[in-house]
Structure formats: structure tokens, C-alpha cells
Amino acid sequence: MSLKVALLGAAGGIGQPLGLLLKQNPAITELALFDVVPVVKGVAADISHVNSPAVTTGYTKDDDGLKHALTGAQVVVIPAGVPRKPGMTRDDLFNINAGIVRDLAQAIAEFCPKAFVCVISNPVNSTVPIAAEVFKAAGTFDPKRLFGVTTLDVVRSSTMSAQAIGDPTGAPKYTIPVVGGHSGVTILPLLSQSKPALPESLLGDNEKLKALIHRIQFGGDEVVEAKAGAGSATLSMAYAGYYFVQRLISAAFEGKTGVVEPSYVYTKDEASLASEIGESLDFFSVPVELGPEGVKKLLPVGKLSEYEASLLKAALGELSGSISKGVSFIQTPKL
Ligand SMILES: NC(=O)C1=CN([C@@H]2O[C@H](COP(=O)(O)OP(=O)(O)OC[C@H]3O[C@@H](n4cnc5c(N)ncnc54)[C@H](O)[C@@H]3O)[C@@H](O)[C@H]2O)C=CC1
Ligand SMILES: O=C([O-])CC(=O)C(=O)O
């Protein structure tokens, strides 16, 4: 089997470690690293010495680099764009990152229209709708193949929950679905659905529960503050992004069944989701069963606690605006 993965924004804080992680996946036979900064060629030369199968090449804008990086790619991962500084929201990145994601999506539509596309660039709540609108305009949109990567919220949920119950090394034990979006109150970790269940000493203690959910929702800020102007989460994001991509690869190319990961996906016309959350949204993060076509099935959000149901209302309030903002960025004619 041959499998080409393209990583766009490969010289960045996320791109470099994510490229290294992708390089060590034995299923990947070709790894195309694209960035607008020339050091990407050095990053590719460096990573290419790792003795795994993926033949690794760096591309910049020169010599039709984006075209060559994307042609034949079956999976495209996008961490291209600017990160936050203290005091900024993810939405403050819109002005720069919206155009970056639009242009990369246009190139994907042209050079690898059938690829699975995993968007990391923030604000995810708007950049995924932007990519979808570009694909729709190009006639290549397949809702089963477009994913907003929200896995870092899932990763933080298990780590922070284990810490909150005084079992910090127990993090890998807890699988906690996160639904909604990827920004502040739109991030809704369903602690009541943790497998195995979290203890009553947490679930029954409103103050502790509130503090934990707030920490997960604003986990990105912890890193932004600690990096003090030098960027946002990169290493944990590379871990989470790689985790999602390798799960997708295992389901889409290696025949693995029963692979379920939350992701921010196209949910328009999903009547059962709309009746669960009480509103019809074009995009929402839900647990997704992955398969050969990408999305095989969207799984239900499931039963929410009373507190989670109140948080869902806040998430819905913000999400619809972020989605429309992304859609209008493409649909509104520029003067
Ligand atoms: N989905 C998530 O959970 C997370 C998303 N992010 C987001 O990921 C993005 C990247 O973050 P970092 O890697 O820390 O930023 P960075 O600034 O370190 O790296 C971004 C890279 O993108 C490149 N780039 C800019 N325009 C480009 C274009 N048109 N084509 C290709 N490459 C381009 C830059 O040259 C740079 O190398 C940010 O928007 C950040 O907010 C960050 C953490 C978590
Ligand atoms: O906080 C940020 O800006 C980066 C991000 O999305 C995260 O760490 O979850």
C-alpha cells in the first residue's frame, strides 16, 4: 500500500513535531512538508534521515511547491497559520488565518480533491466552515472527508480529570467524549460519560466539577500564558493531531473497525443530532465512527447531566456565529 500525507505549515511550532510523529508511522510511504518559510526544506532534510518508510520532501511556494506537495496526497493536515498571544481569543486569529485556510483549501480542491482534510488552524469553529465553502464552490465537497481536529480537548480532558481526582498518573485510563467546538465555552467535555466513570466525589461536587470543566475549556490559555507571547500549545497539539491522524489512517486505509474519535464535522441535515441538541447547526463536534470513506457514522451526543445541558446552551450560542462568520468570509463578494 502507498500512502501520501501532506502537512501544510510544516515548519511551525506544531508542524515540526507533527512531521516527526508522522514520519514514524510505518503506513505512510510519502510525507510532503509544505510551508511558506524556506526552512521547511531543512526540516524535511532533518526528518528524512529517520529510518522509517516515509520518503520525506520539503516544499515552499517556489517551483509550484504547493502543487507538488498536494498532488497524490490522500491525507492533508493543516496547522498553517498564526497562534495566539496572551489576551487574544482564537477568534482574534480569524483575520489572518481565514485567508490562509481559504487559499490552502483552494489548492486542495485543485490538486487532491479526494483527500481527507484535517484542519488544526484556529479558529477551528470558523476555519472548517471556510474549507467546506471553498470545496462546495469548487464542486469537491465531501462532508465525510473534512475534519476539524479537536483531539487536544479530549487529551486534556483525561489528563486534567485524572489530576482533579488526585490520580495524576491515571490519565490514560479515562476516555471522555468532548462535543461542541474548539474554543472556550464551545468546548463541552462530557465528564458524566467518562469510561471508566469518574468518582462521585468529583461528579457530585459542583464546585470541583465547575473548576475542572473551566480548566478543560480554557486549557489553551494556560499554555498561551505560560509561553508569554511565544505562541500557544505546539507539542501537546502535535501529539493530539498525530493521534487523530493515525486513528483516521487505521480506519480509512488499514481496515480497522470500531474507531471512534470526536471531531468537528459537517452536521447539516443530521436530524437526530438536531433533536438531541435542540438546534440545527452546520458544524458540531461529536464522536465520529471512522471508516474507509472517512466519516462512517456520527454517534449520538448521549445523555447529558443537568449541568452539561446548561453548558450546551452556552456552546450553541457562540458556535452558530462562528460558523456564519466562516461561511460569509467565502460567500460575501469582496469589493
Ligand atoms: N486545533 C487545535 O486544537 C489547535 C490549533 N492551534 C492552531 O494551529 C495554528 C498553528 O500554530 P503554531 O504551529 O503554533 O504556529 P507557528 O506560527 O509556530 O507555525 C505556523 C506555520 O504556518 C506557516 N504558514 C503561514 N502561512 C502559511 C501558508 N499560507 N501555507 C503554509 N504554511 C503557512 C508559518 O510559516 C509557520 O511555519 C494556529 O492557528 C494555532 O492557533 C494550536 C494549538 C491547538
Ligand atoms: O489556545 C490556543 O490558541 C491553541 C489551541 O487551540 C489550544 O491549545 O487548544
Automatic annotation (TrEMBL):
Keywords: NAD, Oxidoreductase, Tricarboxylic acid cycle. Substrate binds at residues 84, 90, 122, 156. Residues 150-329 form the Lactate/malate dehydrogenase C-terminal domain. It is an enzyme of class 1 (oxidoreductase). Its EC number is 1.1.1.37. It comes from the Eukaryota. Residues 4-148 form the Lactate/malate dehydrogenase N-terminal domain. CDD domains: MDH_glyoxysomal_mitochondrial. InterPro entries: L-lactate/malate_DH, Lactate/malate_DH_C, Lactate/malate_DH_N, Lactate_DH/Glyco_Ohase_4_C, Malate_DH_type1, NAD(P)-bd_dom_sf. One of its GO terms (molecular function) is L-malate dehydrogenase (NAD+) activity. The active site is at 182 (proton acceptor). NCBIfam families: MDH_euk_gproteo (TIGR01772). This is malate dehydrogenase. It comes from Leucosporidium creatinivorum.
